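ARCHIVE CARD
Drawer: 12
Card no.: 0347
Subject: one protein chain, sequence and derived structure
Cross-reference: see card 0346
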Amino acid sequence: MRNYRHTAKGLAIVVALAFLLIPTGGLAEDNPVVGTWRLKSFVREIVGTGERYNQLGEHPRGFLGYSSDGRMYAILVAGDRIKPQEEAPTDEERVKLHKSMIAYGGTYTIDGGKVVHHVDISWNGARTGTDQVRFYKLEGDTLTIRTAPNKSPVDGREGVGILVGKRPSSDPLTICEQIERTLA
């Protein structure tokens, strides 16, 4: 009987510790950004001058997604992105394609109006293993995200990225069709 009590007590301690170690305030199912967001604009604002420019051109395309299991992804491309002449791009085409996109994925946590992307994989390797701090505002089916000040991975200028996305359900295309068009 005594061994049973020690085993039960030990199990209770392990369970209690597990609950203490699992973050509950930032669980994905507790936040309104869960879902897929289709990119409508991506502007960079330069720190100090306030200058604004379209980081990926006038009509960028892309998606930002947050799942209820705590995973996220971002794929953003320039609207005027080149299309390679062949299935395998030339080295020059490959460089242009690489410079006209931002893509990464990982997990995320939410704390009030702040979302932190914990990056597991990224298009350029530089963001892999980093935490990307973002501040969000949700108005209806529009999500606005501001980055913390950082150096642009596209042109290296210090600034803040401002992304605006809408839920694709308001668009007539299916998610698969939208992703195909983004990658084309």
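Annotation on reverse: The beta strands are 35-46, 52-54, 61-66, 71-77, 101-111, 114-122, 131-139, 142-147, 150-151, 158-166. The first strand starts at residue 35 and ends at 46.
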